[in-house]
Amino acid sequence: GEICGGLCETGRAMIRFAYVFLLSFLLILAELLAESAGLRLLLFAPFVFYISYATDARTGCAAALLGGMVLDFCFGHANPWSAVFLLSAVLFGRLWLARPGSDSLGLLVIPGAVLPFLTQFPATLIQAGFSHSALLDAVSDAITASVCTALILPLAVLFWDWLASLFSLNLFTDARERLK
Fold first, then answer.
1. What pLDDT score does 5 carry?
2. Cβ contacts of residue 23 below 8 Å, gap of 6+?
3. DSSP-H helix ranges across the chain
């Protein structure tokens, strides 16, 4: 009993690591490709929010810091501000989990709309400098990303939960039940 429980838990941790790593890689790659095509999409931050909500803050922080550093490196930024501000998505995910009714997929438009202002806007503003034109660019990018992310996040959560269910991982839709 105890040996199987330990092995099964270790196996789940390894599967969770592979799941988070693979999806992080794919989302970061997609974000980089979109940026190179001139589209400023926010794809990785919603996943950080999701993984923080569905699993735990430790997994979310690891994904945020490592993925944010990769994004900053690939974008050629001198400092890892994206990594720092992606941690706000972890905090927001954990706070959203504590909110009653947060497991409603329809309400995910709210975090989807807020995430760009927590993660993308401050990092973009710092990287570009605090000029008037940088502020206008950062605000317009954040508004565009906010609309897109608000529309995409509920569908993305359904997809990520479906993938997680294939590997018997913790689901977004079951997170509130696990708190009880």
1. 52
2. 47, 160, 163
3. 2-36, 44-54, 57-75, 81-98, 109-115, 121-128, 132-166, 175-179
Report the chain's C-alpha Rg in angstroms: 17
Q: Given the structure tokens 């735990």, which residue do they identify?
A: 56
* Angle at alpha carbon of residue 17, lines to 170 and 11, rounded to 5°: 75
In contact, 105 and 157? CB cutoff 8 Å = yes
Question: Any idea which residue has 């992080």 for tokens?
Answer: 24
Query: In order along the chain (180 residues), what is the average pLDDT of each group of 10 residues?
Result: 59 90 97 91 95 94 96 90 94 92 86 95 87 89 94 96 92 81
Q: What is the pLDDT of residue 128?
A: 82
What's the chain's length in residues? 180
Q: Which of 105, 77, 93, 87 is nearest to 161 (CA)?
A: 105
Query: What pLDDT sits at residue 159?
Result: 97
Distance, CA of 91 to CA of 53 (rounded, Å): 9
Helices (H) and strands (E) in the chain, counts: 8, 0
CA neighbor of 115 nearest in space, from 147, 138, 137, 80: 147
